[in-house]
Amino acid sequence: MEAQLKRMKGQKYLYLMILPAFISTILFSYGPMFGLYMAFINYSPGGGSFFHQFFTSKFVGFEWFRYFFTSGDFYIIMRNTLAQSILSLLVGFPAPILLALMINEVKTGVFRKLVQTVSYLPHFISWVIAANIIITLLSSQGLINKLLMLMNITEQPIQFFQNGHYFWGIIAVSNMWKDMGFNAIMYLAAISAINPEQYEAARVDGANRLRQMFHVTLPSLRPTIVILAILSIGGILNAGFDQQYLLQNNTILKYSDVIDTYTYRYGLQNGMFSYGAAVGLFKSVIAFILVVSVNTFSKRMNQQSLF
């Protein structure tokens, strides 16, 4: 105990540097959690102060959760959320790995920087601009329809935003396009940390560049891949908000509405604050269970985990 206190005293300036981040985390991340109580009451804003209305509202227990589970919206919202998240995961998770591997193999400095810049740029474009680009490309007179008709794949323009069956794929590809380059940075950083002697040993054994990729680079990336996979699966109910809200319309609402847009519409637009809080809390609890479960499974299978 004394040794630990002595070590902490010797590192007091490091603790002082951490203190502002610690305080801000408590204030802005944990402090607002008292609002989770709203999910268990029938809160309705009135003429009094917020705290008076909040703590004097009628306690209803799990009534809002029961209402969500038994409503006809539950199946549709969960179907859309899981479908969009799983498609985005299947398409978007391996894409930055492949991109990082390809960039790593490019030896020409100018071309490599060009590819990195072009692939990173979409991440820094707001979803407002990105959504307008996507809508323009997929409109009846957009580039995609013109190419499809030019190649005789279709005779008439496809109404991508009038048919809900296309929406899940549009979201998956849009997420991949926007985040692929930025997510590849983490894999490129992990690749740069690989000991060059491993590649030299592989070359001595007669391995070409493809074999070096499969037997040196990918095994070295496995810890990074596992950690990011745990986080991705844990956030599988975070299908997004901006892209769905900006790309959806009333015609395809049954396919585009996810938990976050549903919570926004009922919780804020319709004034059902307690109901919105209950739906949001449900999503957070499921995400926590998924992270712990996948982390435990990964630790037992390959001794690699997030915590």
UniProtKB/TrEMBL annotation:
Q: Tell me which residues make up the ABC transmembrane type-1 domain.
A: 78-294
The topology of this chain with respect to the membrane is:
Multi-pass membrane protein
Q: Pfam families, per this entry?
A: BPD_transp_1 (PF00528)
Keywords, A to Z?
Cell membrane, Membrane, Transmembrane, Transmembrane helix, Transport
Q: Which GO terms describe its biological process?
A: transmembrane transport
Concerning Gene3D superfamilies, the annotation shows:
MetI-like
A single GO CC term, please?
plasma membrane
Q: Tell me where in or outside the cell this protein is found.
A: Cell membrane
Q: Which residues cross the membrane?
A: 12-30, 50-69, 81-104, 124-144, 221-241, 272-297
* UniProt entry tagged with the keyword Cell membrane: yes
Q: Does the keyword S-adenosyl-L-methionine apply?
A: no
Q: Which family does it belong to?
A: Belongs to the binding-protein-dependent transport system permease family.
Q: What is this protein called?
A: Protein lplB
Question: What organism is recorded for this protein?
Answer: Paenibacillus oryzisoli
